[in-house]
């Protein structure tokens, strides 16, 4: 399935910052069972490319999960993610070179933006959707105002939790959730419980 199709099934991206290759499969399976379909491994996690490689090998043959990378800052990093099997590229900033390399390799591009100027620069470079970061401090009203002129899908990331997820999902195509869902050392049972809360918000 494509990124858009998985997002329509469940508009929650699980941001697995700090995850290791040894735990990636168990965490992926826990999130899959809870209904989350999109998993981001930030590149500043330990041996992130190996985690992406293992998850892609396990899940990309089917339709259950789609694995990509976050904190992607350079075109070289985009190539490494593609070689590891990642299917989408998420960045904290708007870098046209990263966006163009992502699209050249046939991956989904989701650069980070904060202002309308950055959003339009990202779209001109070929971005598929936009990551509002950090979104929590701005709130859903900011997204609603932006949508008067920005017609591309917007994902809210940074400061999104169970208290505001439903409000963001009223105006956003999806949300990215990090520490409110996963952090190193968190038991699988707690990850599953929180994941179910976010999927319930999505419904």
Describe this protein's structure:
Helix 6 links the parallel strand 6 and strand 7. The protein has a seven-stranded parallel β-sheet. The chain has a two-stranded parallel ribbon with strand order 4-5. 45% of the residues lie in helices and 16% in strands. Helix 2 packs across helix 3 and helix 3 runs parallel beside helix 4. It is globular, with a radius of gyration of 15 Å. The protein has a single domain, classed as Aldolase class I (TIM Barrel, Alpha-Beta Barrel), CATH 3.20.20.
Features:
single chain, 203 residues, alpha/beta, TIM Barrel, 7-stranded parallel sheet, two-stranded parallel sheet, 9 helices, globular
Residues in β-strands, percent: 15-25%
Radius of gyration: 15 Å
- Number of DSSP-assigned strands: 9
SS class:
alpha/beta
Mean pLDDT: 96
Please write the string of helix (H) and strand (E) elements: HEHEHEHEHEEHEHEHEH
Q: Give the terminus-to-terminus CA distance.
A: 20 Å
EC number: 4.1.2.21
InterPro entries: Aldlse_KDPG_KHG, Aldolase_TIM, KDPG/KHG_AS_2
GO molecular function: 2-dehydro-3-deoxy-6-phosphogalactonate aldolase activity
Enzyme class: lyase
Give the helix/strand layout:
Elements: H1 3-9, E1 12-15, H2 21-34, E2 38-42, H3 48-59, E3 66-70, H4 75-84, E4 88-90, H5 96-104, E5 108-110, E6 112-113, H6 116-125, E7 130-132, H7 140-146, E8 154-157, H8 165-171, E9 174-177, H9 188-202
Helix pairs in contact: 2-3, 2-9, 3-4, 4-5, 5-6, 7-8
